[in-house]
Amino acid sequence: MKKFASLLMFSLAFANVNAQSEKTASDNFNKWSIEFAAGVNKPQKPFSDGYFTSTPSPWVGDLGVRYMFNNKFGLKADFGYNSLTSKNNSLDFDSKYYRVDLQAVANLGRIMNFETWTNTIGLLGHAGFGYSQLRNDNFRGADEMGNFIAGVTGQIKLSNRLALTGDFSTIFNASQDRAFDGAYLPQNRGYSGLIFNGTVGLNVYLGKNTKHADWTVISENLDLAAYDNKIADLENQIKTIGDRKPAVVEKQVAAPAPAEKDLIKNMINDKYFSVYFDFNKSTPAETSTAALDVVLTYLKNNPSSSVDLLGYADQVGKSEYNQKLSLARANNVKTILEKAGIASSRINVVAEGADTSIAKDSEEARRLARRVTFRVK
Question: Rounded distance, CA 37 to CA 200, Å?
Fold first, then answer.
């Protein structure tokens, strides 16, 4: 019993001291990418009477550099070029439109959990402001404007380094003094200019890691090194206790008595030790280290034992998604135990889905529902 008490004491103390220093491996992916695209456009307004373009009208070129802060949000700077020319029965004109923009980027594929149904299709949203110019041979210099741009980019993953893209963007020009055909527009203020762009292109991912942030699910990137270090330290501490000899009588430290083993097993099976998770996450919460250490030590001390990992979710969301989330949670705990030396054949994963026994109208109750429990056999 003393050994169990010492184990529990060290586990809890170690977890409390180091809870703030644990981190998930949220940086184990590439963050930079280069974007190339070309396509067609449709300038809507302003135009003088008798001037227009075909629908759609070539050409658009776009070059950008993007940086993702994490797997959901980032920034990109891009340069765009539009050729605006007369078509069909329009009066002749030839204008060039140039822009430079800084845009915020949201990885809608990760935000909306596309990974639950596909690993090859993605979706980005982007919006921002920039500087633009309209040039035409009918006037000197350039019509300088501010612009607002917003759009969505569909992605098809070709490899860990390339993704095919299709983008649709809308550009609003502010303080546009010239129509797209080059005619002067007196007192034309506000966001009066409007262009639609459609392009097809490539994302080229840069960096030494395997995946880019676009395709990374954080739960896939468990920082198992933190758990490995804790396990090693804990084992050394337990070994020190076991090797410690009385000052007067020297004797071999005995293995835990059967009654003590049964007590530990019963406490594990009675859910005294559970691994908890944050909302919509499958990576164990930092405060769950103690429970993992206790179960791990029991399995190492009892090599003939096996364990069921029962994954749960709260009742928020669809039942199908909660089933997948509970499975992912149990699998991630299994990965931690395997990394610590427990054979995969001794671990059985059970996805329990949403825990309907716990009330869903209380945040505290939902927090307790998001867990993995253990059943030692």
Answer: 5
Rounded distance between C-alpha atoms, residue 150 and residue 219, angstroms? 30
So what's the pLDDT on residue 325?
93
The pLDDT of residue 28 is 80
Q: What is the distance between the terminal CA atoms of the chain, rounded to a whole angstrom?
A: 20
Reply yes or no on whether the pLDDT at 26 is more than 60.
no
pLDDT number for residue 30:
95
Q: Which residues contact 358 (CB under 8 A, 6 or more apart)?
A: 314, 315, 365, 366, 368, 369
CATH 2.40.160.20 describes domain 32-215: yes
Residue whose pair of structure tokens reads 């409390």 in the numeric block: 16
pTM of structure: 0.56
- The pair of structure tokens assigned to 27 is 């940086």
2-24+222-376 fold: 60s Ribosomal Protein L30; Chain: A; (3.30.1330)
Q: Quick one: the chain helix, strand, coil %, rounded to 5?
A: 30, 40, 35
